[in-house]
């Protein structure tokens, strides 16, 4: 289409994160030692990563003519939740989405038991993961779920959780349960080796946006603007849309599998 009609895709907004290849290389050594010491398979290697989800925002790309180098935007809606995704490197075990909102129990959850939701909903004033939430999730959700999966696969009950360094992270000892332990990636390597950041989060986000646009299009003809329709989207609807987006990730966490297989193969050489 670009060659025939002179149309190309423009990003309305965006940015690029820095990365540190040297730190990534140093991390490989630590990872290799752990894999050898624990004799881990890719089913026993997990990754969790978070992203902010501005759940009422429209896509940030549009079609433009060849002469256009910028695209006018619209006021960005700042209503957001934090979404964290966790799964193992083989794609055989995906945990429920962690969804962090501001309210302890949003009004739209009336007559709903939070534990009955398909996601792990938890509140935070900053709408970000913090030490207490991470420690609580690790021991109450991750460890029991990982143990259950490994037992069902007749694998030794041992696992390694890779995660990004938060502004004020807990110690690795606080995220440990017998042979299930955690390792933090060093700063500024996320774009290089964070498995969930190799296309998994982006893919789930795209599926959510597609679902959002589909739902909006179904409301077409009701004499109400798109902006007004977006304002009606609530956290309860987000819960089910993001759960569906994660559930239909066809090949599991395929990007994580590629990265982890490389690391495990490298460590066993």
TrEMBL record:
GO terms for molecular function: DNA binding. Coiled coil: none annotated. It comes from the Eukaryota. It comes from Araneus ventricosus (Orbweaver spider). This is Tigger transposable element-derived protein 2. The lineage of its organism: Eukaryota, Metazoa, Ecdysozoa, Arthropoda, Chelicerata. Residues 78-247 form the DDE-1 domain. GO terms for cellular component: nucleus. The gene is TIGD2_13. InterPro entries: CenT-Element_Derived, DDE_SF_endonuclease_dom. Signal peptide: none annotated.
């Amino acid at each position: 289409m670009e060659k025939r009609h002179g149309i190309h895709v423009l990003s309305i907004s965006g940015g690029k994160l820095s990365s540190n290849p040297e730190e990534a290389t140093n991390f490989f050594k630590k990872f290799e030692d752990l894999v050898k010491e624990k004799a881990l398979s890719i089913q026993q290697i997990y990754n969790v990563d978070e992203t902010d989800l501005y759940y009422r925002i429209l896509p940030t790309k549009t079609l433009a003519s060849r002469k256009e180098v910028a695209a006018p935007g619209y006021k960005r809606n700042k209503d957001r939740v934090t979404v964290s995704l966790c799964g193992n490197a083989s794609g055989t075990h995906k945990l429920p989405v962690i969804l962090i909102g501001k309210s302890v129990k949003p009004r739209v959850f009336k007559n709903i038991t939070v534990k009955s939701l398909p996601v792990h909903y938890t509140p935070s004033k900053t709408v970000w993961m913090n030490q207490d939430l991470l420690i609580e999730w690790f021991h109450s959700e991750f460890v029991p779920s990982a143990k259950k999966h490994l037992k069902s696969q007749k694998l030794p009950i041992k696992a390694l959780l890779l995660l990004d360094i938060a502004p004020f992270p807990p110690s690795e000892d606080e995220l440990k349960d017998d042979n299930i332990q955690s390792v933090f990636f060093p700063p500024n390597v996320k774009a290089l080796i964070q498995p969930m950041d190799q296309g998994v989060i982006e893919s789930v986000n795209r599926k959510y946006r597609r679902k959002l646009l589909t739902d909006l299009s179904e409301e077409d003809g009701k004499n109400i603007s798109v902006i007004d329709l977006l304002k009606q989207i609530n956290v309860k609807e987000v819960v089910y849309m993001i759960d569906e987006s994660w559930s239909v990730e066809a090949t599991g966490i395929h990007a994580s599998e590629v990265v982890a297989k490389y690391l495990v193969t490298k460590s066993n050489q």
